[in-house]
Amino acid sequence: MLQLGRVAIREVDVLLRSESGLAASLVRINPCVDGHAVVIPSRPHVKVLADLTATELTEFAQLIVATEAVQQATTEHTTPTAFNIAIKDGYPAGQPPFTALHAHVCPRYTADLKPDEIFERVDGWTPEDGVVNTPPKPDWPNDADRAARTAEVMFAEASGYAQYAVDHGLQGGELPTEPVSFGPKIRLSPKQCFFVSPGGGSLATVNLKPLLPGHVLVIPKRAAATLKELSSDELADLWATVRCVQRIVKGKLGMLASELGIQDGRDAGQSVPHVHIHVIPR
Questions:
Q1: 239 contacts 197 by C-beta, under 8 angstroms
Q2: Cβ-based neighbour number of residue 105 at 10 Å
Q3: 276 given a catalytic annotation
Q4: Residue numbers of the chain with a pLDDT score lower than 50
Q5: pLDDT for 77
Q6: What is the DSSP letter of 176?
Q7: Taking the CA atoms of the chain, what radius of gyration do you get in angstroms?
Q8: Long-range residue pairs from 192-196, CB within 8 A, at least 24 positions apart, any chain
Q9: Would strands 82-89 and 258-264 be described as parallel, antiparallel, or unpaired?
Q10: How far is CA 6 from CA 38, 126, 128, 133, 209, in A?
Q11: For position 142, what pLDDT does the model report?
């Protein structure tokens, strides 16, 4: 039987299982929005993303996308136009006590919630009825206070991460020497990039306006707007890169955990139509 923390999962609440049964998508688990699903590894007591095997990570990532597809096909009323994906990867990042690794898949609709409301609901979520999570809240800045950083500041940060990767044997591909496309209009300076996956399909860049120190982005090289547009190989490469980037940024800054977030579509708050995973160390 599947378990999420202290909650035993009923078979009727299993929406999907991954191809080899290594991950499961759950519904009706104390939902914080209509259609809210939670994706978990089938193996018990997996605390964080780093504890998954490579095969488990691939199936976990694929099941997130499959869950989105089912939600779009079976929602009773309005079809979701976008999704927020959130992972509190470790207790310092707000993972509820007595739980293990899980990803929130939250359907979104045009003008359904205020910009920060979905994140507040996920912050307070637990799998247990009547139990509210109360994680410590970081000092999130107001958007108006997030000034763009200089190229020199971003280059210094990226160089530090790149050197940490080298010093700790985190072998990646060749860093770019030309501007990198991010969506249809933005060209990232190659000096912002600090890690490229060994196969070259994904890369990590520092953030122009970080929410917290160490807030970075991981993007696929190909400009796909949503997760469902990525091939299975691109998706696996993206998530393997996320896991490596977590290790780099947390190690360099001495952090213990990280929040992962994807605004998968415009109505989920996506500002650039190019898949990007926010990695925020905590």
A1: no
A2: 29
A3: yes
A4: none
A5: 59
A6: P
A7: 18
A8: 192/154, 192/155, 192/158, 193/158, 194/157, 194/158, 194/159, 194/161, 194/162, 194/165, 194/248, 195/161, 195/162, 195/165, 195/170, 195/241, 195/244, 195/245, 195/248, 196/172
A9: antiparallel
A10: 15, 10, 8, 14, 38
A11: 85
For residue 141, what pLDDT is reported? 87
Q: What is residue 180's predicted lDDT score, i.e. its pLDDT?
A: 97
> CA-to-CA distance for 130 and 265, rounded, in angstroms?
31
Retrieve residue 180's tokens.
């990198």
* Residues in the chain, overall count: 282
Q: At what angle do helices 151-167 and 232-253 cross, to 10 degrees?
A: 100
pLDDT digits (tens, 9 = 90+) for 205-245: 999 999 999 999 999 999 999 999 999 999 999 999 999 99
8 A C-beta contact, residue 237 and residue 274: no
Cβ atoms within 10 A of the Cβ of 151, count?
Answer: 12
Residues 258, 90: contact at Cβ < 8 Å? yes
Token pair of 87 as six digits: 């992972």
Which residue is associated with the tokens 């609709």?
Answer: 109
Q: Which of 277, 276, 274 is nearest to 258 (CA)?
A: 277
Catalytic pick from 102, 104, 274, 276?
A: 276
